[in-house]
Specification:
mainly beta, Neuraminidase, four-stranded antiparallel beta sheet, 3 helices, globular
């Protein structure tokens, strides 16, 4: 029973869809509750060993090494974030009326909040989230739950992405355009769209079918342009790098837009042993930036300068607890950035917190992150980090 509860916690974490969406006769085959004996064993970590699969090493923390000089909570109940640094605007998702999530915009200090998607007549008005800026600041791309589908909206939350499509909304919030229309069933979906730095391409992860704990996913890169005032996608390319394609999560483009940054578990590792990768789009060359197949590494975000990557990791912790780390864009010089799970840290939030999605701010001297702060992994704060 303890193992079952633990998997349920894992599946809710940090913007990643970690629920199996396999069709099984009349209903869904959940990873922690299924009549399929093999599925039960997969969910319980058969062969892999729980200590190896979910736990990393521990050591005494030296919180004084952190380069964080100030932590400011700018919203008590928020979600995934993206900071348009040159205009000092943050777009994010958060729960709204009726329990569904919506997309909001606020200033970099948390003021001037307004909702872009709330009760919009042209939108499905169910779960909407994982927003990201177009570099022009004129558009925001996000994912939205289909108005109708055969299963629970729990599967369609922004961090899970099943039964979701890609949409674009104008910054004024008056016009929206649907970019994809995936079939349902089967249980397809999208996750974490990101524009290239020149605004000409869009990158996202897409669920293709069921299988394993999380389903089988791919990475998509498409051309993005606006024709006659209407945004559209074209020349969509599909990638499934690695030896054993399983789960992928998209995080963005390299500084020159020639490569993509993502999380994956496709190198014969545990399904929860995500690593951080960079792939050259022209050659397909794959670089593992962390090489820790038994540690949870996710949400790699490139700095505005292109020199640093921040990511969330279970290093020195136990899943589902994470903290932020930084490294150079080639994977060198890894340093722990936050200690939200350490009561001795001067910026401890009063409860253990696990930062997930994050984004760099103006001059790379600030960062915004979504910190999950409750045991049920359902509530989180949006926090600004000032760096030395």
């Amino acid at each position: 029973m303890k193992k079952t509860v633990f998997i349920i916690s894992i599946t809710l974490i940090f913007g990643t869809f970690l629920i199996s969406a396999n069709r099984a006769n009349a209903g869904w085959s959940w990873p922690w509750k299924t009549n399929n004996e093999q599925g039960v064993e997969q969910a319980r970590g058969q062969k892999a060993g729980w200590s190896e699969r979910f736990f990393s090493w521990r050591k005494k923390n030296n919180t004084s090494e952190s380069i964080v000089k100030k932590v400011t909570v700018i919203r008590e109940n928020g979600g995934r974030v993206d900071w348009l640094a040159d205009k000092d605007l943050i777009v994010f998702d958060a729960p709204h009326d009726g329990g569904f999530s919506d997309v909001f915009v606020m200033n970099g200090n948390g003021s001037g909040e307004r909702c872009l998607t709330c009760n919009h007549p042209a939108l499905p008005n169910k779960h909407m989230g994982n927003p990201a800026w177009h570099p022009s600041g004129e558009y925001v791309v996000f994912q939205a739950e289909k108005k109708e589908h055969p299963d629970s909206s729990e599967l369609a939350k922004p961090g899970r992405g099943t039964y979701n499509d890609l949409w674009v909304i104008g910054i004024k919030g008056d016009k929206v355009w649907k970019l994809t229309d995936l079939p349902s069933p089967p249980a397809t979906g999208v996750l974490h769209p990101h524009f290239s730095h020149n605004g000409k391409k869009l990158f996202w992860a897409q669920r293709e079918k069921g299988g394993g704990l999380f389903g089988v996913w791919s990475l998509k890169v498409a051309d993005f342009d606006v024709v006659g005032g209407i945004p559209r996608l074209s020349d969509i390319k599909t990638y499934q790098p690695g030896k054993t394609p399983k789960f992928y999560e998209s995080h963005g483009f390299t500084k020159n837009d020639r490569g993509i940054i993502f999380s994956a578990n496709s190198e014969d590792q545990s399904e929860t042993g995500f690593d951080q990768y960079v792939m050259d789009l022209a050659t397909g060359k794959l670089t593992n930036l962390v090489g820790t197949p038994r540690i949870w590494d996710e949400h790699g975000q490139l700095s505005n300068s292109g020199r640093k990557i921040v990511w969330a990791s279970s290093r020195d912790l136990t899943v589902p607890h994470l903290d932020l780390w930084t490294m150079n864009d080639d994977g060198s010089d890894k340093k722990r950035l936050t200690y939200f799970n350490d009561k001795s840290w001067k910026f401890y939030l009063g409860v253990n917190g696990s930062p997930a999605d994050s984004s760099w701010g103006p001059g790379d001297k600030k960062m915004v992150t979504f910190v999950i702060t409750d045991d049920n992994l359902s509530l989180g704060k949006i926090v600004i980090l000032d760096l030395k």
